[in-house]
Known about the structure:
The protein is of the alpha/beta class. It contains 11 helices and 11 strands.
Amino acid sequence: MEKHEKYQRLIEYCRTLPALPTAVAHPCDESSLRGAVEAAAMGLITPLLVGPRARIEAIAAEHGIDISEFTIVDAPHSHAGAALAVQLVREGKAEALMKGSLHTDELMAEVIRRDTGLRSARRVSHCFVMDVPAYDQPLIITDAAINIAPTLEEKVDILQNAIDLGHALKLEEVRVAILSATESVNPKIPSTVEAAALCKMVDRRQITGALVDGPLALDNAINIEAMRIKHIESQVAGRANVLMVPDLEAGNMLAKSLSFLAGADAAGIVLGARVPIILTSRADSVTTRLASCAVAAMVAKARREAGKVIG
C-alpha cells in the first residue's frame, strides 16, 4: 500500500463535508500558520487565528502565506491566545480547537479548567491515528500524549474515547487490543490485571461499541501468525485496529517507533472535551497536518449526529 494512501482517502472524504470552524491557538510560527491555511485551502477547516495580530501578519508576510481571507482574533501572548481560543468554542464560534506554536500543556490547561474550560463528563485523552505503510488499515494508538499513568477508572474513558473515534472514522468493526508485555494475566504485571478487568467491563456493557481483548502483547495483537503460534483464540488478536497502551511511556515509544523506524505518519487528536482538539507537532508533514484536521472533522460530524461527546 502506498505511503499516505489511508490518509488521502480520509482527507478526500472530508473535503465533501462543510469546513469545520476551528479556533487556532497562537499560530505564531511558519509551520502552525501554514498548516492552518493549507487545511483551509483543502476545505477541511475555517480557521480563526487567535494570537498577536502584528506577529501573525509578520510571519505570514515573511513566508509568503496569504491570510487575507481569515479572521484574526487579537491576543497579546500564548497564554491569552489559549484562553481566548477556548472561549470562542464556548461561545459557539468554533467547533474545534487547534494547537498553534504554544506548548501542549499551556493549551490543555485552559481546556481542562473547571470554570471556563471545555470539560465534559469524560476524561480527556489523546489518540494517534497512524498511517503505517506495512499495515493494511489505519491504526489508533491511545494514550501516548496526555495521561501519564492512568488508573483503571481513567482507562475506562480512554478506551471508550478510542472506540468512539473508531466509529467516527467509519471503521467497519472496531477491534481493540489492550496491550501489555504478555497475553497472560500476571498479578506481578498490573497492566495485565487491568486489561482483564476492562474486558470484563466490556462483557457487562460498561464499555460499549467494540470487540475488545487483552492483555495482548504487541506481536499477537497485530500479527496473525504470532497469534496462531501462541494458540490464542480471539476476535481481536492478529487484526486489531486500536491499540490501547498501559501508560504514556509505552504509547509514546510505540508511536515514535512506528514513525521513525516504519515510516508511519501520526495524526493527533484529543478527545473527551466538548469539541475535538487538533494537536500537531512542528515536525509533522503537510499530509499529517491535513489528516489531523480531517480526523477532527469526522469527530465533529459524528458528535453532531449522535448528540454526544466523543471529542
